Amino acid sequence: MFVDKINIQEKFLKFSDYWSPKVIAEMSDYQFKLVKIKGKFTWHDHKDTDEVFIVIEGCMRIEFRDNQVELREGEMFVVPKGVEHKPVADDECKIMLIEPRGVANTGDAGGQLTADDNIWI
C-alpha cells in the first residue's frame, strides 16, 4: 500500500517561477498541479475539459469577457469547458489546479506563457 503523504507547502518551496504548473499527484487521468501566479495571464479556454482553481495562499481573480470572480485563500472555482477566461493576481498567489493529464495551461491559445507539461516536483 502506498502511504507517502504530500505536503503542499513544502512543494511550493521547490519552485519560484510563475505561470508554470507543477504536478504533485495523479488520480485516475487527473493531475493535481501547483502553480504560483502573479500579473496577468493570457485569454484562453479549454475546449474539452473544465478547470478547477483552488487558492492555497493569496488572492486572485478570473476574468471573463462579461464579468469576473474573485478568489481568496480557501476558495475554489470551476471554469466550465469552452469558457474563455484570464487568471490575474496583483500579488503572488499560490493555487492548485485539477485537470486531466495533458492539458496545456494556455489551452489552444499558445504563446510564450505556455508551460512545459507534466513537470513533476
From TrEMBL:
Query: What InterPro entries would the database entry show?
Result: Cupin_2, PKS_Associated_Protein, RmlC-like_jellyroll, RmlC_Cupin_sf
> Per the record, a Pfam family?
Cupin_2
- Looking at the record, the residues that make up the Cupin type-2 domain are 39-97
Q: What is this protein called?
A: Cupin domain-containing protein
